[in-house]
Amino acid sequence: MRIDLHTHSSASDGTDSPAAVVALAVGAGLDVVALTDHDTTAGWEPAAAARPESLTLIRGAEFSTHVVTAGRRRSVHLLGYLFDPADPAIVAEQARLVDERLQRGLRIVENMVSAGVPITAEQVLDFAAGAPVGRPHIGRALVQAGLVATVTEAFDTYLAGGGPYYVPKDDTELTLAVEMIAAAGGASVVAHPWGRSQRSVLDEARFRELKERGLSGIEVDHPDHGPNERDELRAMATRLHLLVTGSSDYHGTNKVLRLGQETTDPGMFAELVAVTSGVHPLGPGECRTT
């Protein structure tokens, strides 16, 4: 069984529609795929409608969160799976985060325009097409303007954290997000915890505290993690009795990542599903839509 638990569609900052992600997952030979768009569940319904009987769909989201370390706010991404999308706390926080993303994106564009970068807010909003605005949408505008060749290059130059145009956003506090997902019947997994220079932010003491608050697992097998990080994270997950997942973090053409590039062990997947009660997996033998 091939299981990929972290993908993005055009409902957030991917380039493929939710229906297309489902079709591509089948083409990639996946048995299970999770749709985990940033701070939104808008892709759930079209993905479910496009799902063939052979594929199990896990409905989820990637929550924008932060921790405070040495007096600084540091961004952490948290995957939530099979939570109740109508939970009032989830609904309110996702609405706040969508607006926060929009305002932050517009401020970044304003900084660029003030510096003479030839893009417009209208371009970025066109690329977002109603989805929560993310830096990849700005990256696509930079590609369109001929300033960079790829969105990846845009992140390395114009969109880098701490760069001249960067604007932080007011994300959910990580512990609160873990508790919120658990209260909505979902399972939470910290995404790519030691990629992107995050090792000092998410040490074993932090993970132990998060486990006590309801954290389910750690995304260990991810393209941002090298062999050493994977070995150490896997050992730590074992010590803390946390589940281990593997995922591609697929974004379509916004990133050079393949669906199914990293996968989750079927036993770990079964344990993850077992702790949830918000919504059910949609898959062979499971026809319920709630």
Describe the protein in words:
The protein has 290 residues and is α/β, with parallel strands linked by helices. Helices cover 38% and strands 18% of the residues. It contains 10 helices and 8 strands. Strand 7, helix 9 and strand 8 form a beta-alpha-beta unit.
Keywords:
single chain, 8-stranded mixed β-sheet, 8 strands, 38% helix
Main β sheet profile: 8 strands, mixed
Task: Sketch the topology as an H/E string, one letter per element.
Answer: EHEHEEHHHHEHEHEHEH
Name the beta content range. Answer: 15-25%
Q: Helix segment count?
A: 10
* Total beta strands: 8
Tell me the distance between the termini. 24 Å
Mean pLDDT: 94
Radius of gyration: 18 Å
Helix content: 25-40%
Q: What global shape is seen? A: globular
- Spans of at least 5 consecutive residues whose pLDDT stays below 50 are none
Which structural category fits the helices and strands? Answer: alpha/beta
Topology:
Elements: E1 3-7, H1 18-27, E2 32-38, H2 44-50, E3 56-69, E4 72-81, H3 88-114, H4 121-128, H5 135-144, H6 151-156, E5 172-173, H7 174-183, E6 187-190, H8 204-213, E7 217-221, H9 227-240, E8 243-246, H10 266-274
Parallel strand pairs: 1-2, 2-3, 3-5, 6-7, 7-8
Antiparallel strand pairs: 3-4, 4-6
Give the structure's gist in a few sentences.
The protein is of the alpha/beta class. It is built from 10 helices and 8 strands. Helix 9 (227-240) links the parallel strand 7 (217-221) and strand 8 (243-246).
